[in-house]
Amino acid sequence: MTKLKPYNEYKTSGIEWLAEIPADWAVRPFRHAFRESSEVNGDSPVGKMLSISGYRGVEIKKYDDENQRRTEAEVATYRVVRPGQLAVNTMWLNYGGLGVSELTGHVSPAYRTYWIDESFERRYLHHLMRSATYIDAYTSRLTGIRPNSLQMSRDNLMVFPILKPPRAIQRSIADFLDRETAEIDAFIADQEELIGLLAERRAATISHAVTKGLDPTVPMKDSGVEWIGEIPTHWRLPRLAYVARCSSGLGMDASQLRADQSEAAPFAVYGGNGVIGFGALHNMAAGGIAIGRVGALCGNAHVICEESWVTDNALRLVLDTSKVDQAYLHDVLVARRLNELADKTAQPLITGGAVLAQQVPEPPLGEQRAIASYLRRETAEYDAAIADAKEAIALSRERRAALISAAVTGKIDVREHGAVA
């Protein structure tokens, strides 16, 4: 696309954070553009439960657990959302918790819904209200005590400045941004799909190496274990308890935890999801493995390379290094998908007993080391490709946010690029 230029003439907006705006644009208070709706479900819920994504806008709510669904009686006071209305999560304005809905449904009574004045192009307002420029402005005006429950009062929202270009320009901006963001979103979706494929291939590479070895010509035998399948005939298949000891980590007072490493806090502190900080104490020597044991962290395995503190969110696995190589066993545990062992009846939980009961492939020690070395090389290539894709996604999202802000605030003139050729 040709480099986008600014408008020919600008004027002061009178709003510090908006700075100058195109000469024929206006600034109106929120109440000029929006009228609050008081419609609620009542006895018959309207549509499905909706939520607001900071990236996607208004969407159908997805539940991690069906038990989270509300009954018809429970949603009687929930606010109705109609297509073309602005829905606002007042406690998530600093995370982009608002958007113009294309759906019919209902949202929490803590949300607000607004009809949009006919002089505004709804798609333009959707981009404007969710732009990085506006999110920064909301954030500076939120009040409250806790970071995740800051809100903007109705009075403050009603006088919040809304940019109003001429209607034809609003439409051009909306057309341009709908097209450009769709292209960026499609690229991001492709990169996310690539990451998924690379992660699958990485996992398959690990699983194959730790269960089949590196020599495709060796005779095989059935392990009798579903996730392992066949293994080389000369491999053993002991339970993990034969090669390691397992115990729970220990709690650490928040005052003992530091974000940075220093002489006063020299030891890494491991939770269920890797290093979470540093402390002055250690409860595990180098050479072991920490395994996440509760909640969403269940089954995450981490190599302990130096003296560390392992919290009670993780299990400590101390290895018999005469029988098993640390790096190889880590790869085995990754292949085993330990999260499948978690108790799903309440908060997910993995016990040390369940971990120690697992049968693990045990090649001769030299072969274990060769497999681990091979996997370090192979997974490094996958990790580099995944990192490149993640960087491309991050840069695309930055470009998307910058393009939206520049277009909706009049920093670039998109009129010649708005309509599809």
From TrEMBL:
Q: Which GO terms describe its molecular function?
A: endonuclease activity
Name the source's superkingdom: Bacteria
> Is the keyword ATP-binding in the record?
no
Matching InterPro entries = Restrct_endonuc_typeI_TRD_sf (IPR044946), Type-I_RE_S_subunit (IPR051212)
Q: Which UniProt keywords apply?
A: DNA-binding, Endonuclease, Hydrolase, Nuclease, Restriction system
What's the protein called, per UniProt? Answer: Restriction endonuclease subunit S
**What organism does the UniProt record list as the source?**
Rhodoglobus aureus
Organism classification: Bacteria, Bacillati, Actinomycetota, Actinomycetes, Micrococcales
